[in-house]
C-alpha cells in the first residue's frame, strides 16, 4: 500500500466510525449541532475572510481568470449568506427515520421502508469555499459523515472553515472526524479516495467536465454526476418580448460564473428580426459579448453589434462568463432538437404566453429542471427550499436536480412478523 493509499484508508476508517455515532442521532441533537456550527463560523469570520484573502492573492498571482476568482471569493456578505443557509437547513424537517409505504402483506408480515443515512460521502470540488459548509451541514443533518477534497485554490479557506465545523462537533460531544478535509493538493489522493469503497458510500464531484469524467472512469463507488450547466432559454413567437428582456438578463448577468447561468438563447424566427437587435443592445450594455448563427449576426447589425460566428464548439460550451450564444430557430421543434443535441441536462426555459407551446416544451425537454416564463437561475437548493445543496445532479439515478436532504438518504426494508415463516 502506498503512503497516499494509507492516508486515505485512515480517513475512511475514521469517517466510517464517526458515521455510526451520527446515524441514530436525535433530530434535536442535530439541530443543536447545526446551531453550534453557525456560531463557530460567526466567531471565526475574521479568520475565514483573512484565509480567503490569502487564497485570492495566490490565485491572482497564478493567473486564474475572473470566473474562477468570483467562485473563490468569500467576503463578509457571502459568509453571512452561508450562515443564513444553515438556519434554513435547521428549519427543514429531518428525513431520517421517516416510514415509507407501510403495509400488511398477505403472509402476515408488516413491511415498511425507513429513511436512513447513506453513511460516508466523499465530495470533490473546486474553487468554491461555500461548498465546504453546505456539504458538511447537509451531511450532518442527515446523519452522514463526509470527506471533503476542495481545490488547491481554496486550501487556506477550507482549513479554517473545516476547523470551525470540527470544533462545533467536539463541543457537542460528537467525533470531529464526522467532517474531514483532505488538505493536500496531491492528486493521487483523489484517485485513492475514488477507490475507497470499503468505507465511502457515495462520491459527489462538483467541478468541470474533466473532474466528472475522472470520477466516472476511476471510481469503484457510486458517483453522482452533475454541476455542468449548458443552459438554454427559448423565446417563443408568443412571448411578451418586453418582459422577456429582464428574464434573459437575469439568467445571463446576475451571476454568470455559476452552472445555472444562461449559455444559449434560442429565438423563434417569427420574432427574431424584432427581438434580436433589442436583446443584443440591452445585454451588451451589461457587458455581454455574443456568438451567433448567420441570421443572428445579420439581424444584430441593427443594434450596431456583430457577434462572433457560432459553431458546434461554441454551442457546446458552458461559458461561465458574460458570453452568450444566440441562434434563430424555425419553431419549437427545432429549439427542442437543439437542446437535445447540446444540453448537459441541467436547466432549460421557455418564454411564451401560449399554454400549448409551454406544455409541449415541458413534455419534450428532458433536463433536471425545466421552466416556463422563469429564469434558469432558480435551479439551486436554497431557491428550491432545500436549504442548501450538495450538488445539482444531471443524471437520473438516484438523485436529479438540486440535491438536498433526501438525496443524502437511502432506505432499508423493515419487516415485522409474529414468528412468521415463509410457506
From TrEMBL:
Presence of keyword Chaperone: no
Q: What class of enzyme is it?
A: oxidoreductase
Q: Which CDD domains is this protein grouped with? A: ALDH_F18-19_ProA-GPR
Aldehyde dehydrogenase domain mapped to chain residues? 5-286
Might you give the EC number(s) for this enzyme? 1.2.1.41
GO MF annotation list: glutamate-5-semialdehyde dehydrogenase activity; NADP binding
The subcellular location is:
Cytoplasm
**A GO cellular component annotation in the UniProt record:** cytoplasm
Please give the pathway this protein is involved in. Amino-acid biosynthesis; L-proline biosynthesis; L-glutamate 5-semialdehyde from L-glutamate: step 2/2
GO BP annotations listed = L-proline biosynthetic process
Which reactions fall under this protein's catalytic activity? L-glutamate 5-semialdehyde + phosphate + NADP(+) = L-glutamyl 5-phosphate + NADPH + H(+)
The alphabetized UniProt keywords are: Amino-acid biosynthesis, Cytoplasm, NADP, Oxidoreductase, Proline biosynthesis
**What SUPFAM superfamilies does its record include?**
ALDH-like (SSF53720)
InterPro entries with a match to the protein in the record: Ald_DH/histidinol_DH, Ald_DH_C, Ald_DH_N, Aldehyde_DH_dom, G-glutamylP_reductase_CS, Glu-5-SA_DH, GPR_dom
Q: What does this protein do?
A: Catalyzes the NADPH-dependent reduction of L-glutamate 5-phosphate into L-glutamate 5-semialdehyde and phosphate. The product spontaneously undergoes cyclization to form 1-pyrroline-5-carboxylate.
Q: Which family does it belong to?
A: Belongs to the gamma-glutamyl phosphate reductase family.
Supply the name of the protein: Gamma-glutamyl phosphate reductase
Amino acid at each position: 500500500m502506498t503512503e497516499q493509499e494509507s492516508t486515505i484508508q485512515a480517513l475512511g476508517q475514521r469517517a466510517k466510525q464517526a458515521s455510526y455515532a451520527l446515524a441514530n442521532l436525535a433530530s434535536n441533537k442535530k439541530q443543536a449541532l447545526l446551531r453550534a456550527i453557525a456560531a463557530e463560523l460567526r466567531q471565526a469570520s475574521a479568520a475565514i475572510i483573512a484565509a480567503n484573502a490569502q487564497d485570492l492573492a495566490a490565485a491572482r498571482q497564478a493567473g486564474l481568470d475572473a470566473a474562477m476568482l468570483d467562485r473563490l471569493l468569500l467576503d463578509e456578505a457571502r459568509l453571512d449568506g452561508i450562515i443564513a443557509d444553515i438556519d434554513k437547513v435547521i428549519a427543514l424537517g429531518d428525513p431520517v427515520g421517516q416510514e415509507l409505504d407501510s403495509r400488511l402483506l398477505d403472509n402476515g408480515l408488516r413491511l415498511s421502508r425507513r429513511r436512513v443515512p447513506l453513511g460516508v460521502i466523499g465530495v470533490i470540488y473546486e474553487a468554491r469555499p461555500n461548498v465546504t459548509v453546505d456539504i458538511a451541514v447537509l451531511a450532518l443533518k442527515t446523519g452522514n459523515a463526509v470527506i471533503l477534497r476542495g481545490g488547491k485554490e481554496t486550501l487556506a479557506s477550507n482549513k479554517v472553515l473545516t476547523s470551525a465545523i470540527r470544533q462545533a462537533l467536539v463541543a457537542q460531544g460528537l467525533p470531529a472526524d464526522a467532517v474531514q478535509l483532505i488538505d493536500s493538493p496531491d492528486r493521487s489522493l483523489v484517485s485513492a479516495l475514488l477507490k475507497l469503497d470499503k468505507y465511502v458510500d457515495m462520491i459527489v464531484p462538483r467541478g468541470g467536465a474533466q473532474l466528472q469524467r475522472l470520477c466516472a472512469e476511476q471510481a469503484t463507488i457510486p458517483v453522482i454526476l452533475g454541476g455542468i450547466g449548458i443552459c438554454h432559454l427559448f423565446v417563443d413567437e408568443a412571448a411578451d418580448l418586453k418582459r422577456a428582456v429582464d428574464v434573459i438578463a437575469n439568467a445571463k448577468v446576475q451571476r454568470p460564473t455559476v452552472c445555472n447561468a444562461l449559455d444559449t438563447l434560442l429565438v423563434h424566427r417569427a420574432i427574431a428580426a424584432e427581438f434580436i437587435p433589442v436583446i443584443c443592445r440591452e445585454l451588451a450594455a451589461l457587458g455581454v459579448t455574443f456568438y451567433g448563427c448567420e441570421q443572428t449576426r445579420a439581424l444584430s447589425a441593427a443594434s450596431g453589434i456583430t457577434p462572433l460566428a457560432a459553431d458546434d464548439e461554441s454551442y457546446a460550451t458552458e461559458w461561465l462568463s458574460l458570453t452568450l450564444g444566440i441562434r434563430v430557430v424555425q419553431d419549437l421543434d427545432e429549439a427542442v432538437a437543439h437542446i437535445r443535441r447540446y444540453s448537459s441536462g441541467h436547466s432549460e426555459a421557455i418564454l411564451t404566453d401560449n399554454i400549448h407551446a409551454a406544455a409541449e416544451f415541458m413534455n419534450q425537454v428532458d433536463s433536471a429542471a425545466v421552466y416556463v416564463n422563469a429564469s434558469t437561475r432558480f435551479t439551486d437548493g436554497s431557491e428550491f427550499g432545500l436549504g442548501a445543496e450538495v450538488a445539482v445532479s444531471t443524471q437520473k439515478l438516484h438523485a436529479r436536480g438540486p440535491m438536498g436532504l433526501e438525496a443524502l438518504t437511502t432506505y432499508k426494508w423493515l419487516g415485522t412478523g409474529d414468528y412468521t415463516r415463509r410457506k
